Amino acid sequence: TQTHSLFFTDEGLLATVSFEDALHPDAPALIQRLHDLGIVPIVASGDTPIAVAQCAAALGLKFHHGGLLPQDKLALVQEYQQRGRTLMLGDGINDAIALNAADIGVSMAHGTSVAQESADIVLTREGLPQIPQFFVLSRLTMQTIKGNLWWAFGYNIIAIPIATGAFSVAYSLELTPIMASIAMSFSSLGVVANSLRMHNKSLS
Question: Domain boundary at 127, 159, 185, which?
Answer without folding.
Answer: 127
